[in-house]
Amino acid sequence: MTTLSAIETRFFAFESDFVDSLRCIPMIVRYKLDTCRVKLQLSEWAKFNFDEKDFLAEMPCHTDREVEMYGDYVHELVWKYTSKVPSLLKTLDPAWVHTHVPAEVCEKAQEWKCPVISASQWMGLDVLERFALVKLSRSGHEGRNFPRAMAEFGLAVAC
């Protein structure tokens, strides 16, 4: 049995423009979706009611059983609203667990003229903070939140 580190349910300040309504998928839910390898589209998320979205943020997703239950619940919700089965991630590259700063994070920091993140700073972040920086570094994610996250995590004053 695999048990992942328990991740406290929390929302970041850089998510404050949507967290009250949960119109976008917050990092805590993205982390849990990646954990159970479910690819949830924003259009699917938008169909869920607020209580379902809030439950996905709060629902535990640490032990093998919890991960399975989380994935099953997401599948049920997507089916309920779309009559489709959500896609699964082919592979999971958890760059946020590495002890070195992923290249994509370094590149995004350089792009935004943010300070270089040292390995010790990287390891000083918690898993959800590292996850957020990796996700914000990847294409398809709202890049303007990267410098906001860097500042929130104490890695930059302003980029």
From TrEMBL:
List the InterPro entries. Answer: NarM
What domain of life does the native source organism fall in?
A: Bacteria
Q: What Pfam families does this protein's entry cite?
A: Nitr_red_assoc
Protein name from the UniProt record: Uncharacterized protein
